[in-house]
Amino acid sequence: MAKYVVNSRLSFAINFILAERLRSRSSPLLQAATRWWQLYLIIKNLTQQMTEKILKGKLLFYSEQGMEGGYLSFQDSEYITLNSATFGINNNCKVWDKSNTNRQGLASNAEFFIENNWLEFPDPIWKDKDFEISSLYCGEQNGDLNADKRLSEKYSFKIKYSVERLNETYGQGNWKIDRNLPNVILKDGSLLHFGDTPTTIPSRPYGIPQGATSRVTVKWNDGIIQHEILSEDLLVEQSDYKGLHMLQNEDILIIMDPTTKNIICEGKLDKIPLKIFSQTRQGHFEQINQNNNYNWEQYFTENYYAELHRK
Predict the structure, then answer these.
(1) Per-residue model confidence (pLDDT) at position 27
(2) Distance (Å, rounded) from C-alpha 281 to C-alpha 62?
(3) For 273-298, how does the pLDDT look when each residue is reduced to its tens digit (9 = 90+)?
(4) Alpha-helical runs (H) found in the chain
(5) Contacts of 180 (CB under 8 A, 6+ apart)
(6) Under DSSP, is residue 220 helix (H, G, I), strand (E, B) or coil?
(7) Rounded to two decimals, what is the model's pTM?
(8) Average pLDDT, stretch 296-301?
(9) What is the DSSP string of 259-294?
(10) 62, 63, 97, 214: which could join 231 in a potential S-S bond, CB 3.0 to 4.6 Å?
């Protein structure tokens, strides 16, 4: 009933304004009706704004472990905080000065303090051609034992193969290999799946323990380069899952320049168009109109800041 009354009054006001304009432009009733109409438009505009959801944050790709492909997503800045790094700081990581959070930079030359030594990260053994054919990478059944020997001499570590590890664990004569590794039969007849990747002392490739101290070179946004800055003096962004939004076709994105914060471009996802879900990263951007001159793939890959408008 209330809606009917409002619509009736609205219709009357519009018709009255048109009729009075034809008769007299100075009519008090015309002025009152005009003010009522202007007020209605203001209220209508505010109501539309209230129903539209506007978020500020950054663009990203999202995929869950074990899931093939991923989604174009948006992380609400209300759920992004600066904290100390849990697993140290790696190369190409964005960092902030702990004593001045307005100062931002990019990390490189990462090193971690492991077993009383500063070690390059990632472990340089990953880039060694011998590693790719070694049993450390391919397993004992397929690995090249000569490559193992060269690696152990070059990087100064000892290799423990399955026989030695089985003897240490179950005792000599208490086990036998069932045709091939990783299948093992123990003396009591029980079957065992025993991995055929040898262990090394010390561990190679080495991993990063939780709470490990790291140091990096930082190129700050003011152009200054500093070396061997400890991770405890830096902060990194950490995001809460509560602020993660999977993008939708009807969403509108306004992209900001990372440096100036000026608007680069804006677009509705289904008009650009962007593919919300894709098996590959490039697949999200395969359908973009040829007359679209903006690099949407770069915006998501480099986690540009943006506004999300959603009704």
Answers:
(1) 63
(2) 10
(3) 999 999 888 899 998 887 778 999 99
(4) 2-23, 28-51, 129-133, 135-138, 145-155, 162-170, 296-301
(5) 141
(6) strand
(7) 0.63
(8) 93
(9) TT--EEEEEETTTTT--SEESSTGGGGTT--TT--S
(10) 214
Measured between alpha carbons, how far is 280 from 301 in angstroms, rounded to an integer?
12
Pair 256, 306: CB distance under 8 Å? yes
Name the token pair of 280. Answer: 């590959």
Dihedral pair phi/psi, residue 297, rounded to 5°: -65, -40
CB count, 10 Å around CB of 232? 14
253 beta partners: 267, 308
Quick check: 43 pLDDT over 60?
no
Task: For the chain, give the mean pLDDT.
Answer: 85
Locate all alpha helices (DSSP H) within 24-177, ordered by sequence.
Answer: 28-51, 129-133, 135-138, 145-155, 162-170
